[in-house]
Amino acid sequence: MEFRDLKSQYRTLKTEIDNAISQxxxxxxxxxxxxxxxxxxxxxxxVGVKHCISCAxxxxxxxxxxxxxxxxxxxxxxxxxxxxxxxxxxVAILKATPVFVDIDPTTFNMCPSAxxxxxxxxxxxxxxxxxxxxxxxxxxxxxxxxxxxxxxEKYNLKVLEDGAQGFGGKIGSKRACSFGDVAVTSFFPAKPxxxxxxxxxxxxxxxxxxxxxxxxxxxxxxxxxKYNNRIVGLNSRLDAIQAAILHVKLSAxxxxxxxxxxxxxxxxxxxxxxxxxxxxxxxxxxxxxxQYSIRFGDSDKRDYVRNAxxxxxxxxxxxxxxxxxxxxxxxxLNQYSGCPVSEYxxxxxxxxxxxxxxxxxxVEDVCNCICAAVQHSxxx
Length: 380
Ligand SMILES: *Cc1c(COP(=O)(O)O)cnc(C)c1O
Known about the structure:
Distance between the termini: 28 Å
Bound molecules: pyridoxal-5'-phosphate
Helix content: 40-55%
Number of strands: 14
């Protein structure tokens, strides 16, 4: 069994993907160009925003968005304590200060009341100035944007949605990557919508930010005069081959893949909810299930079950074993003790196989193994 089965997906879409790649080779355009532009238009339409600006990966997408907000040395940027490192390293690389905010114990996303307390703490301390909030759509579930956007307005902060795992999720009819002032996503192969290499995108309704990012991703070149460089930028562009692959994969994503992972999630939940904490999707929220993550009562039980799965050749992953406030890379910030729920969760969380091509038999095998291991771990 595969954790995220990219091979089955390729077998299903092979003819179309192979054609898309060879058409790109024939076209002779390999970086940006028409295939990339038409993909950006399709992505913006799917998400429901005016502009999509593709780039090399989501880490760059976050960094460039923060640059567009003018984030720098004196600024505080609020990020969840429980996420992939890139959410915060994009802040630190610009010499701004990431401030780690604890998560909600049931959704695993940024906790709005912890956010407000963190903002007030930074204001009272007076060393750095609150500027941006980066909520993360962890495991495919959009963060609590209604509550977070209210706080952002109150303190006059920008909101940057880290939708690297969130593409395809929704709150009501509003899709992930349409929240806040700017949003980003990742096309890393294992993300909900992945290509066959690195890729990312920024989404916004703001025309000025769109224009700025289009210069920033090509070393600050003027749109009409390539060697007239107006700002200091990055080289961060999407390849035409990746865009051609994404055209095919976006169709599959829209027509059945997101529904499929949601059906599989209900199978898992039915069979597991009585023995472990299963994902809780609030009324009105819809997840794209980048991961299906379960939480155990203690870390010994989690590790015992993980070992049992591994013995049965069932892959599982711990996203994430170290909360950001405990990462060595951020030790200079001295924020060790601020995120108890993130720490508690990192010791007890386990992500099990999740992708659109899992069968009911696969799900039953995983659940039988987990149930047997949980029972065994309680008696021994
Ligand atoms: C994967 C991921 C990123 C970084 O994406 P890349 O495209 O690999 O740079 C950022 N934030 C979160 C939450 C992620 O899961």
